[in-house]
YtkA-like domain-containing protein
Amino acid sequence: MLVILLKKRGFIVKKLGSILIALFSIMLLAACGDDSATNKEKNSNMDMNMDMPATLTVDVQMPSDPKVNEEVSFLAVVKQEEELVEDADEVMFEIRLKGSDQKEMIESELVKGEGYEATYTFTKAGEYEIIPHTTARNQHVMPTLEITVSE
Protein backbone atom coordinates (compact mmCIF):
# COMPACT_ATOMS: atom_id res chain seq x y z
CA MET A 1 0.00 0.00 0.00
CA LEU A 2 2.84 2.35 0.84
CA VAL A 3 4.48 1.61 -2.52
CA ILE A 4 1.26 2.46 -4.39
CA LEU A 5 0.89 5.70 -2.41
CA LEU A 6 4.49 6.71 -3.18
CA LYS A 7 4.02 5.94 -6.86
CA LYS A 8 0.83 8.04 -6.95
CA ARG A 9 2.60 10.86 -5.11
CA GLY A 10 5.42 10.86 -7.72
CA PHE A 11 2.86 10.96 -10.49
CA ILE A 12 1.10 13.89 -8.83
CA VAL A 13 4.41 15.76 -8.34
CA LYS A 14 5.32 15.27 -12.01
CA LYS A 15 1.90 16.49 -13.12
CA LEU A 16 2.02 19.45 -10.76
CA GLY A 17 5.54 20.35 -11.99
CA SER A 18 4.40 20.23 -15.62
CA ILE A 19 1.39 22.41 -14.85
CA LEU A 20 3.55 24.95 -13.02
CA ILE A 21 6.03 25.12 -15.92
CA ALA A 22 3.19 25.61 -18.41
CA LEU A 23 1.63 28.40 -16.28
CA PHE A 24 5.00 30.12 -15.87
CA SER A 25 5.60 29.97 -19.65
CA ILE A 26 2.18 31.47 -20.38
CA MET A 27 2.78 34.30 -17.89
CA LEU A 28 6.20 34.98 -19.41
CA LEU A 29 4.80 35.12 -22.95
CA ALA A 30 1.96 37.38 -21.84
CA ALA A 31 4.43 39.77 -20.21
CA CYS A 32 6.54 39.91 -23.38
CA GLY A 33 3.57 40.54 -25.67
CA ASP A 34 2.67 44.05 -26.73
CA ASP A 35 -0.44 45.97 -25.95
CA SER A 36 -1.38 47.04 -29.47
CA ALA A 37 -3.54 49.96 -28.40
CA THR A 38 -0.81 51.36 -26.16
CA ASN A 39 1.88 50.92 -28.82
CA LYS A 40 -0.27 52.50 -31.53
CA GLU A 41 -0.85 55.49 -29.26
CA LYS A 42 2.89 55.80 -28.59
CA ASN A 43 3.73 55.57 -32.31
CA SER A 44 1.03 58.11 -33.14
CA ASN A 45 2.48 60.54 -30.61
CA MET A 46 5.97 60.01 -32.04
CA ASP A 47 4.70 60.76 -35.55
CA MET A 48 3.12 63.99 -34.40
CA ASN A 49 6.28 65.12 -32.64
CA MET A 50 8.61 64.46 -35.57
CA ASP A 51 8.64 67.02 -38.34
CA MET A 52 10.02 65.14 -41.30
CA PRO A 53 11.35 67.49 -43.95
CA ALA A 54 9.94 67.18 -47.43
CA THR A 55 12.08 65.10 -49.77
CA LEU A 56 14.47 66.79 -52.15
CA THR A 57 13.86 66.36 -55.86
CA VAL A 58 16.42 66.84 -58.60
CA ASP A 59 15.39 67.48 -62.18
CA VAL A 60 18.30 67.48 -64.63
CA GLN A 61 18.13 69.46 -67.84
CA MET A 62 20.59 68.26 -70.47
CA PRO A 63 20.93 68.18 -74.24
CA SER A 64 18.92 65.55 -76.06
CA ASP A 65 21.61 64.69 -78.64
CA PRO A 66 25.13 65.47 -77.40
CA LYS A 67 28.09 64.90 -79.75
CA VAL A 68 31.65 63.78 -79.09
CA ASN A 69 34.09 66.66 -78.44
CA GLU A 70 31.31 69.23 -77.99
CA GLU A 71 30.95 70.93 -74.62
CA VAL A 72 27.53 70.26 -73.07
CA SER A 73 25.83 71.80 -70.08
CA PHE A 74 23.92 70.01 -67.30
CA LEU A 75 21.56 71.91 -65.02
CA ALA A 76 20.32 70.30 -61.79
CA VAL A 77 17.15 71.97 -60.57
CA VAL A 78 16.95 71.08 -56.88
CA LYS A 79 13.65 71.57 -55.09
CA GLN A 80 12.09 70.82 -51.75
CA GLU A 81 8.36 70.71 -52.35
CA GLU A 82 7.97 73.66 -54.76
CA GLU A 83 10.82 75.74 -53.33
CA LEU A 84 14.01 76.06 -55.38
CA VAL A 85 16.96 75.03 -53.21
CA GLU A 86 19.88 77.44 -53.56
CA ASP A 87 21.70 76.48 -50.36
CA ALA A 88 22.84 72.96 -51.27
CA ASP A 89 25.99 71.75 -49.55
CA GLU A 90 27.11 70.02 -52.74
CA VAL A 91 25.90 69.16 -56.22
CA MET A 92 28.37 67.05 -58.20
CA PHE A 93 27.71 65.26 -61.46
CA GLU A 94 29.06 61.73 -61.75
CA ILE A 95 29.60 60.81 -65.39
CA ARG A 96 30.26 57.18 -66.30
CA LEU A 97 30.35 55.34 -69.63
CA LYS A 98 28.03 52.34 -69.25
CA GLY A 99 29.94 49.11 -68.67
CA SER A 100 33.01 50.97 -67.42
CA ASP A 101 34.25 51.24 -63.85
CA GLN A 102 35.82 54.62 -64.55
CA LYS A 103 33.87 57.69 -63.58
CA GLU A 104 34.41 61.42 -63.45
CA MET A 105 33.05 63.74 -60.79
CA ILE A 106 32.28 67.25 -62.06
CA GLU A 107 31.61 70.12 -59.66
CA SER A 108 28.71 72.43 -60.37
CA GLU A 109 28.11 76.09 -59.70
CA LEU A 110 24.93 77.76 -58.53
CA VAL A 111 23.10 79.80 -61.14
CA LYS A 112 20.75 82.00 -59.07
CA GLY A 113 17.10 81.37 -59.77
CA GLU A 114 17.83 78.35 -61.99
CA GLY A 115 19.83 75.57 -60.33
CA TYR A 116 23.31 74.07 -60.35
CA GLU A 117 25.22 73.97 -63.63
CA ALA A 118 28.20 71.97 -64.82
CA THR A 119 29.80 71.60 -68.22
CA TYR A 120 31.47 68.55 -69.70
CA THR A 121 32.97 67.38 -72.99
CA PHE A 122 32.45 63.72 -73.90
CA THR A 123 35.47 62.16 -75.59
CA LYS A 124 33.84 58.87 -76.66
CA ALA A 125 30.53 57.96 -78.22
CA GLY A 126 28.29 55.63 -76.24
CA GLU A 127 25.69 55.37 -73.52
CA TYR A 128 26.48 57.25 -70.33
CA GLU A 129 24.99 57.43 -66.86
CA ILE A 130 24.68 60.89 -65.34
CA ILE A 131 24.19 60.97 -61.57
CA PRO A 132 23.76 64.35 -59.86
CA HIS A 133 24.97 63.69 -56.29
CA THR A 134 23.03 66.30 -54.34
CA THR A 135 23.45 67.04 -50.65
CA ALA A 136 21.20 69.70 -49.13
CA ARG A 137 19.20 70.24 -45.97
CA ASN A 138 20.43 67.06 -44.29
CA GLN A 139 19.46 64.89 -47.26
CA HIS A 140 21.38 63.21 -50.07
CA VAL A 141 19.72 62.24 -53.35
CA MET A 142 21.32 60.84 -56.48
CA PRO A 143 18.95 59.97 -59.30
CA THR A 144 20.46 58.14 -62.29
CA LEU A 145 19.84 59.40 -65.81
CA GLU A 146 21.01 58.02 -69.13
CA ILE A 147 22.26 59.89 -72.16
CA THR A 148 23.53 58.70 -75.54
CA VAL A 149 26.52 60.51 -77.06
CA SER A 150 26.98 60.18 -80.81
CA GLU A 151 29.88 60.90 -83.18
Remarks:
- The domain at 56-149 is CATH 2.60.40.10 (Immunoglobulin-like).
- The chain has two domains: 2-49, 56-149.
- The mean pLDDT is 84.
